[in-house]
Amino acid sequence: MPTFVYMTSCDGCGHCVDICPSDIMHIDKTYRRAFNIEPNFCWECYSCVKACPQNAIDVRGYADFAPLNHSVRVLREEKKGVISWKIKFRDGREKDFVSPIRTTPWGSIKAPSEYAPPGKAAFAAQELAHEPDALNVPALPALAREKLKQGIL
Ligand code: SF4
Ligand code: SF4
Fold first, then answer.
1. Low-confidence ranges of the chain (pLDDT < 50)
2. Which of 60, 65, 108, 114 is most buried, by CB atoms within 10 Å?
3. Residue-number span of the structural domain to which 47 is assigned
4. 51 CB near ligand 1 (under 6 Å)
5. What is the pTM of this model?
């Protein structure tokens, strides 16, 4: 279900443009409002929906899911740390979903290039890059030979 922008709610801040992995959210040069230039190429990741501070982006339901008079409203409730979805079907039924959003401050995540390159020992370790620090845990459980049914040769 690709996204679309309510132009009357959009203020042209460009957050959706910055975050879209498919590079299809653009700012209209004349109206200074965002629009989805190619809904067919939308990944449907909804990063733009979640990033929009104006609640100006919605989801266009597919015909088999919500035809005629339906709506899919997405509300970002930053203070509560959640995204609320309200799905309205044409027969009047409504479904509400609430999912948590990451509350990490905007721009505070380091890019991979800002980390030191892994040393030789890291290639032999079971952890992935930046684990366990990036997970905010002291250590990850490791596989031990005695715990495996067939052991390790
Ligand atoms: Fe881009 Fe994802 Fe929004 Fe589609 S849902 S326009 S891919 S950010
Ligand atoms: Fe408009 Fe929202 Fe995109 Fe900002 S993030 S440009 S308000 S649609």
1. none
2. 60
3. 3-100
4. no
5. 0.65
